[in-house]
C-alpha cells in the first residue's frame, strides 16, 4: 500500500473550511485524512524544504509550508494537436505541475480545432498516456472557430468537453452567441467568451493610449473588449445561459461584470496574472513577450482588476498560458503572435496579492482552485477524504528569479524573465504522484 504523510504543514482548503496546521495522509492516490493540530500554531514560521524518505510509506515534513489543494487552471493552451513546436500535452502538463497546477482545461484553438468528438477523444487519450496532470478539454463554439455555424456541442460534451469557447477569437455573430448560450443550459456547462469586437480592435497590437502613440504601434481600445462584455451580459440575461468572461483586462469590463452580478445575471469572470502585475509600459522596447490579447493596459485598469478580485467581481485567476515558439516571438512586434507562457509564474505572481493584503491565502485558493472547479463542475480542488490526491506544497516566502530557459514549457515567452518573485510551489502531487 503506497502512503504519503505530509506532516506539520499549514493546510488550507476553502472547500472544507480548513485553515490551520496539521497532517495530510494520502493512500493509493487518494486523500485519506486531514488531521488538524489543536494548538493553532501557524506552520509557515520556519523555512524548510520537504524531506522525503525512500519507502512505501513516504513522510514529508511540510513545516513552514502551505499544503493546499492542487491548483486548477481553467484557461490553458496546450497546442496539441497541430502546434507541437509551441507546446505538447506532455510539456504543457509538466509546466502545469511545475507551477502547482494539478488540472488544466485546454482551449480548442489547435489544428485541427477541437470542434468535434474525434479531436476531444484524441486530447483525452494523449493526456491520459502522457499528461503529468489532469486535462479537461474545452470544445469550440463554432465549427473551425470561424464564427459561422455552431459546432457539435452535444457530441463533444458526450466525449468529455467541460465548456465551450472560441477563445483566441470572439464570436462576432450575436445570434450564434445567443444559440451557444441557449445550448449551454442543456448541458449545464459554461460558454467562455473571448470578448473582442474585431472591428474596433481592427488588427491593433497593443493598448490604445500614450505608450502606443510613442511607439507608433496600432492600437486596441478598451472599448473593443467592453462592448462585447456588455453584449454577452445582455445575451446571458436574455437566455439564462452560463456565461464566463475570459481574460478580463479593463476597468470598464470589471464595472460591467460587477453591475451584472448585482442584477443577478449568471455571469462569472476570470483575469490573468499579467493583467494585475504589469502595464502597457512593458511593451516599451517593442518586447514581443509583452504582446498578448487582450493587450496589457494601464495602471488604472490594473488597480480596477485588483479591486475586482478583492470584492469578488472576478471569480477566477486563470493563466491563459499561451506558449509560442521562440522564432515566432523574434519577429517584429506587429507580426509576432500574442500570448504569454504563464503556467510557471502564475502562482508566484498571484501570491503578491496575498503579500500585499488584497486577498487572503484562502481567497487566493478560491480564485485558483475552488471557483474554477465550481464553474467547470469538476470533481477536483478539494482535500476531502476520498478525493484524488491533488496537492501542492507552497513556500510563500522563498524568493526565486524567473528564468524562462528553465521552464518545462516549450514556450519561453514571458515578460517576467529576470524578475525576482516571492513564493513558489516546492512540490506538486497529482493523483498521488510526486513532482518536485
Ligand atoms: O494572447 C493570446 N494568445 N490571447 C488569446 O486569446 C489566444 C492566445 C493564443 O492562443 O496564443
N-C termini distance: 22 Å
Radius of gyration: 21 Å
Average pLDDT, rounded to a whole number, is 95
Structure annotation, total helices: 13
Helix percentage: 25-40%
Bound molecules: (4S)-2,6-dioxohexahydropyrimidine-4-carboxylic acid
Largest sheet: 8 strands, mixed
Q: How does this model look, in words?
A:
- Strand 6, helix 1 and strand 7 form a beta-alpha-beta unit.
- Helix content is 30%, strand content 22%.
- The strands form four sheets. Strands 1, 2, 3, 4, 5, 16, 17 and 18 form an eight-stranded mixed sheet that branches.
- About 3% of the residues have low confidence.
- Helix 4 packs across helix 7.
- With 436 residues, it is α/β, with parallel strands linked by helices.
- The two termini are 22 Å apart.
- The protein binds (4S)-2,6-dioxohexahydropyrimidine-4-carboxylic acid.
Amino acid at each position: 500500500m503506497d502512503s504519503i504523510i505530509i506532516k506539520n504543514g499549514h493546510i488550507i482548503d476553502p472547500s472544507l473550511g480548513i485553515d490551520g496546521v496539521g497532517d495530510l495522509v494520502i493512500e493509493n492516490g487518494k486523500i485519506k485524512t486531514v488531521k488538524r493540530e489543536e494548538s493553532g500554531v501557524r506552520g509557515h514560521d520556519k523555512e524548510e524544504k520537504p524531506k522525503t524518505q525512500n519507502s512505501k510509506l513516504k513522510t514529508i515534513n511540510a513545516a513552514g509550508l502551505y499544503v493546499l489543494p492542487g491548483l486548477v487552471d481553467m484557461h490553458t493552451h496546450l497546442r496539441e494537436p497541430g502546434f507541437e513546436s509551441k507546446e505538447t500535452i506532455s510539456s504543457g502538463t509538466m509546466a502545469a505541475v511545475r507551477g502547482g497546477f494539478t488540472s488544466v482545461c485546454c482551449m480548442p484553438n489547435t489544428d485541427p480545432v477541437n470542434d468535434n468528438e474525434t479531436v476531444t477523444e484524441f486530447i483525452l487519450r494523449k493526456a491520459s498516456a502522457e499528461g503529468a496532470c489532469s486535462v479537461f478539454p474545452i470544445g469550440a463554439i463554432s465549427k473551425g472557430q470561424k464564427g459561422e455555424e455552431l459546432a457539435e456541442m452535444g457530441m463533444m460534451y458526450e466525449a468529455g468537453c467541460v465548456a465551450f469557447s472560441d477563445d483566441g477569437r470572439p464570436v462576432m455573430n450575436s445570434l450564434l452567441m445567443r444559440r451557444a448560450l441557449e445550448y449551454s443550459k442543456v448541458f449545464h456547462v459554461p460558454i467562455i467568451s473571448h470578448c473582442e469586437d474585431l472591428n474596433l480592435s481592427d488588427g491593433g497590437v497593443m493598448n490604445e493610449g500614450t505608450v502606443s502613440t510613442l511607439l507608433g504601434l496600432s492600437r486596441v481600445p478598451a472599448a473593443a473588449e467592453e462592448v462585447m462584455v456588455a453584449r454577452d451580459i445582455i445575451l446571458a440575461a436574455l437566455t439564462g445561459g452560463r456565461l464566463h468572461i475570459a481574460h478580463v483586462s479593463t476597468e470598464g469590463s470589471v464595472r460591467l461584470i460587477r453591475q451584472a452580478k448585482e442584477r443577478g445575471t449568471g455571469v462569472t469572470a476570470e483575469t490573468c496574472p499579467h493583467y494585475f502585475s504589469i502595464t502597457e509600459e512593458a511593451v516599451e522596447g517593442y518586447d514581443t513577450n509583452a504582446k498578448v490579447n487582450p493587450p496589457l493596459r494601464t495602471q488604472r485598469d490594473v488597480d480596477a482588476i485588483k479591486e475586482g478580485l478583492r470584492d469578488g467581481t472576478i471569480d477566477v485567476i486563470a493563466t491563459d498560458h499561451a506558449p509560442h515558439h521562440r522564432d515566432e516571438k523574434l519577429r517584429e512586434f506587429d507580426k509576432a503572435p500574442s500570448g504569454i507562457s504563464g503556467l510557471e509564474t502564475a502562482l508566484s505572481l498571484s501570491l503578491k496579492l496575498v503579500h500585499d493584503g488584497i486577498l487572503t491565502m484562502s481567497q487566493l485558493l478560491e480564485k485558483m482552485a475552488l471557483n474554477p472547479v465550481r464553474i467547470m463542475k469538476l470533481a477536483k480542488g478539494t482535500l476531502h477524504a476520498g478525493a484524488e490526491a491533488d496537492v501542492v506544497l507552497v513556500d510563500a516566502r522563498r524568493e526565486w528569479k524567473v528564468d524562462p530557459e528553465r521552464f518545462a514549457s516549450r514556450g519561453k515567452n514571458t515578460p517576467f524573465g529576470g524578475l525576482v518573485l516571492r513564493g513558489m510551489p516546492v512540490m506538486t502531487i497529482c493523483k498521488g504522484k510526486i513532482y518536485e
